Give the backbone structure.
Amino acid sequence: MRRWWVLAACLALSCTANNGAVFFLDDDGGEAGDARVDSRTPTDATSAVDGPVTVPDGGGTDLGAGTDLGGDSAVTADVTSVYDTGTSGATDGCAVAACTPRPTGCAPRETCGNGLDDDCNGMADDVCACVPGTVQDCFLGPPARQRVGACQGGTQRCEGTGEFGRWGACQGGISPGAEVCNGLDDDCDGCADNGLCCTPAITCPAPGDPRIPDGQPFANYPLRGGLFYTGAARSWNWRVEGGPCDTLLPRPTFELLGVGGRDVIFRPTLSGDYRVTLTVVTSTGERLTCTWIVHIVGPGLRVELCWDTSTTVDLDLYVHDPRNTRPWFDDTSGPNTSVNDNSCNWSNCEAVLRGTGLRSNWGYRTSPLSACENGPHGADWRALGVCGNPRLDIDNNLSKATGVPENLNVDTPRNGERFRVMVQNFTGTAARPIVNVYCGGHLRATVGGAPDTLPDFTGRPGSVSIGAMWRAVDVVTNVDATGTTTDCAVTPLHAPGATSGFWVTREDPSY
Ligand SMILES: [Ca+2]
Ligand SMILES: [Ca+2]
Ligand SMILES: [Ca+2]
Ligand SMILES: [Ca+2]
């Protein structure tokens, strides 16, 4: 016998925020502040699902909500977890190494702010308010299964157009899957290949496996099939899926060289998480597959700009000097050539300077060549002997480059510095830009992207005027005692006095 909670779907739960605090509203008719599943108010009779409920268990091994090891017909009633496939633990009648699956950690109600799906309804932090445009780490699976076996987190973006939004789908991670014979704990219960009597022909990597180290933007990343499968093969297939800019640009932000071979070279240009899938067809025609995530971890602060019309419209990315709040341009009516050194931009931050002033210098050490020599303009940086810090990797101005993202990098920010990010529409015609902010390799904001796209970002051309400027976000960096950027706080910006919407101005050079 055991007790467990019987839950109703928690879709009806809601929460709101006031002065930053998040609390739950009760729609079950109980007292204010309680949740729909309420164990503390036995007098709250209007909810059919209140309180702990004891249900007889017909035998077998029930490790808690959502963990059904099979052979236990009664526990089919405990499907309070969308992750309970009921397949784990089928034993095929053979002896397997003893391994006790971990509990799921499914809880009666969602906890906000942890990026977990505490109540196992298939959505992480789904009742929680958030700031639209910000991104948090998340995990889609039973809470106690995160970072177990194959499982790892992804990210979720806060969606909405008002002051507060709701977390969107948790994407990009690896959730529990059906256990298959591959040496990996696919269902993330702590036991590899459990229930299967097999000798794996392919050995798939779990997060942290030395065969899948982190990579760097613009550095070649070898993918070697022989590390995972050593038998005879009819064919090898590699597939890589990228991040937010890959849905917007005319071609991927990465290259895959040598496709069709056992060994290929993956060459990313952006930070972030890339999903890699290897499929081998063996000499006997069996298809074997591994999927894992490669983290591309650019150090410090990396701001990316990409836009849908990147082959016909010239947008420019600016990041302001954190030490002052002076205007982005020197006058209000002149052409774009009045750009100044108050920001890192196309004129003062690329390998070859185009402005009349000095290279952008915010008092940081220059970075070693390894930080930029494999990127665009690598030969120009090599001629300088160092990498600028800050630096703009490339200006997509339709002549020097087209259809590519612009990355602005601050390799070694100081702790607590505030960086304002601005996008100018130089061409002036329609464009839908998105800005991604990575800190220490973690995606922390995607602003301007669907479904909350930036409206009407048009203005007079930068060749005759300042035109349209979008002040996108402020970023405050977290830097530890060793100088490593560990994280940041991103604040999407609104027009002065507004609590929602995008801050787009015309002919306004102010900070
Ligand atoms: Ca949930
Ligand atoms: Ca949660
Ligand atoms: Ca397992
Ligand atoms: Ca497995």
Q: What stands out?
A: Residues 1-131+141-151 form one domain. The two ends are 66 Å apart (CA to CA). The longest helix spans residues 378-384.
